[in-house]
Amino acid sequence: MKKNVPSRKKVPFPVNKELGEYLAKYHRGTELPLQYEDLLRFHTSISLYNQLGEDTHWETVFYQENEQKEIYDALTKIYSLLKTDGDTNVLEHLTVARIDYCLYGNSKPFRIRVINGFNDNYDHFYVKNADASRIYGLELEDILSPNRVMYLVHGNTLIEEHIAGIPGDDFFQRHPDISEFNKIRLLKEFIKFNERCFVRLLGDMRAYNYVVDITPDIEGNQYRMRAIDFDQQSYEGRKNFYLPQYFKENNPIVFMGVGNMTQQTVRQYQLEERSLIANRAKSAKEQLQELMDIMVRDKISFPKKVHQLRKELADHHKNDLFLKCETMGEIVLTNIQLLLKKDFKQSMIFKGVKRL
């Protein structure tokens, strides 16, 4: 059986004119004082280790003294654009504490740590290569999920806010013995997260590509799972690639569900989330339609993958509408339209579990 992993390294796609105009209209596109390529001029780097002495696969980078001030000043301005709509009054209190670089991510991101001089509190944001499919993923997350996402685009440069939470793989290691009550709440959120990914076809949600946000409640905790990697927005051809339940990295929560969730309860939560997604789609009807009009004409994958996914989804939904789709955007739109017509079918979760 084929493993549920990307077929090869994700290929980035350029931001076309139509998408660029859409981003400008909705205040995502803006002039930036620095481009991604500028950060590649670092002079040297050292490996970054965590508190346990383990290699994080990030490198802290350093710049020549005559370039460092210019780069740091530009980065604090970008942070103000991202967080305070460009209000420069905050700049005198902000400094760049560290710049880290990751060679392993598809977008080869830079992570910027910014320190507030008043209280030594720090925050992060990311500078990445702009990729059209990733931007569609960010927009669909902002429109169709319960989460808002802050990001900016200028040319080939993408700026993303840091999404706070415990990475899924760390969460499963640190919280192996949660209460029965909290297990049910966590499973409920995983079912809803699984549904959101499948409806809008966000793939590769292995445990380290999403975070768990924990909110203490009157009794127990509330949980929210949030995607942090949008590279695999409707790119791969395998249907199961868009269902987090099939990734072995999510085994801890999947096997937890086998003994704690009935299929009737699972279906209830699936229907609840579909209803919420439909309401969000209706609330942002004009913006979503505008985005989809652009996405259906854009190339964000390859014909072989499009043909595979449309066939697998046609078989899954028992609906030949997918067989007419020629782009990933058309497939996503058809999936959303089925949801709005209440003709969307989900695979079984926590029953006859098979790992890919």
Explained architecture:
The protein has 356 residues and is an alpha+beta fold. The chain has helices at residues 17-25, 36-39, 65-84, 132-144, 168-174, 180-200, 251-258, 263-283, 285-295, 303-317, 328-340; strands at residues 44-49, 55-62, 94-101, 110-116, 122-129, 151-154, 157-161, 166-167, 210-216, 221-227. A 7-stranded antiparallel beta sheet has the order 1-2-3-4-5-7-6. It has a 3-stranded antiparallel beta sheet with strand order 8-9-10. It is globular, with a radius of gyration of 21 Å. The mean pLDDT is 91.
CATH architecture of the largest domain: Orthogonal Bundle
What is the string of helix and strand elements? HHEEHEEEHEEEHHEEHHHHH
Order the strands across the largest sheet as they lie in space: 1-2-3-4-5-7-6
Radius of gyration: 21 Å
Q: Outline, from the CA principal axes? A: globular
Number of separate domains: 2
Q: β content, as a range?
A: 15-25%
Distance between the termini: 7 Å
Structural class: alpha+beta
- Overall pLDDT confidence: 91
Short description:
40% of the residues lie in helices and 17% in strands.
List keywords for this structure.
356 residues; alpha+beta; Phosphatidylinositol 3-kinase Catalytic Subunit, Chain A, Domain 5; 2 domains; 7-stranded antiparallel sheet; 3-stranded antiparallel sheet; 10 strands; 17% strand; globular
Secondary structure elements and pairings:
Layout: H1 17-25, H2 36-39, E1 44-49, E2 55-62, H3 65-84, E3 94-101, E4 110-116, E5 122-129, H4 132-144, E6 151-154, E7 157-161, E8 166-167, H5 168-174, H6 180-200, E9 210-216, E10 221-227, H7 251-258, H8 263-283, H9 285-295, H10 303-317, H11 328-340
Antiparallel strand pairs: 1-2, 2-3, 3-4, 4-5, 5-7, 6-7, 8-9, 9-10
Helix pairs in contact: 6-7, 6-8, 9-11
